Amino acid sequence: MGENLEDIRPQFGNRFLINEEDVFQHNAWDNVEWDENQELEAKRKVELNGVIKLSKDDIAKHENEADKFWDSFYSVHSNRFFKDRHWLMTEFPELGDTDEGLDKVFFELGCGVGNTVFPILRYSKGKKLLMHCCDFSETAINILKENPEYDPSRCNPFVFDATEEKWEMPFEENSVDVVIMIFVLSAIKPEKFGNIIKEIYRYLKPGGLVLFRDYGRYDLAQLRFKQGRCIGDNFYVRGDGTMVYFFDAGEIKSMFENEGFEEVQNHVDRRLQVNRGKFMKMYRIWIQGKYRKKIN
Asked: Average per-residue pLDDT in the chain?
């Protein structure tokens, strides 16, 4: 969040670069492995931009007033910034696997203006699907409600701060089939991750799934940061005041398993995006995961 780089359709596994000479024949290549020199160069850049120059007061301001920075972001960009995530059903077929006669309850944490919500409601087979969704930006929720596709009988948006220690939700514990987290955890202070996952576990049904996608370590967006924007290890503040963290697949696995989840998928999605006009190569890295609440 905070930039539109993640809106490029991320479906992985379709096009592989076999011959380096073919790199500019297509706009993107899937699962592109890095060589040792590329990895070392990425680490060097992160070390350079990882010098913390902001004061403790400035860092606290960005953490404590995160909702205000996101309100400002959405006020400026309205609903024109993010594209609807039509790739969701390809990457997460569980979102479309809703039988006509069965009640299903989904919950998206950090829904923004609804660019995940509306494709799910649009393509879902199950007419009884109920989509709860929240964001700590009141401006984003208001924009979502103004969307002509908003249907209060199927969609329940509300303002909520996920960093609260004890969640009070408008639905029961053990009642949600699927929790969706798309580029949201990265916008939160890392010390809060464990409690967020613990609270998600409380509201999921036994056997329920968390679908997760976020920025990976050494992604292009991380390497672009200059000195003076770092506020913690792999944690930065953008020019608009919003924050972003870059994950390692191993820490994602540990975070969820430490709270009792079992791993279904943990995939490092490496894509090489190409500007064929300028002969530019842009390396994107995302972490995609699926975690299930165990059935006792």
From this structure: 82
